Amino acid sequence: MEVKSNINKKEKESLELFLRLMRSTDIISDKAAKIVREYGLSYAQFGVLETLFHVGPLCQKDLANKHLTTNGNITQIIDKMEYKKWVKRVKSKEDRRKFNIELTKTGSRLIESSFPDFAGHISKILNPLSATDKKSLGKLLEKFSETVENQ
Asked: Which residue in 20, 54, 71, 103 has the most C-beta neighbors within 10 A?
């Protein structure tokens, strides 16, 4: 997509790259969300289950930070997941003012069954890239993310 505006070459290149990044992110996110919906999950709920499955119990604040969302939003997500008995709040042993979010047996079974399917679909989505391309893109995105975060 070409930007048709009275801007300099560097700005034009940056905007065109930004649009490509956003378009790619939207396409991949839409496909990933479709996969998890087949399991009755929202993308955010799947992310919480996956994090708790691979990292272990976390407080809501840490979950919010990992998922780049607000404490209020993560509270709503956890409330819905707790209602469905996928997670439970457990008082922290280190700080009685905090609650850790833990997977229930139902939540564990759900993520154990959905994660391999999700991983397989993501692999297919990214299959057009060679292993070298994936590694290079990963390094570029990591460098880019670190630079942007430090601005």
From this structure: 103
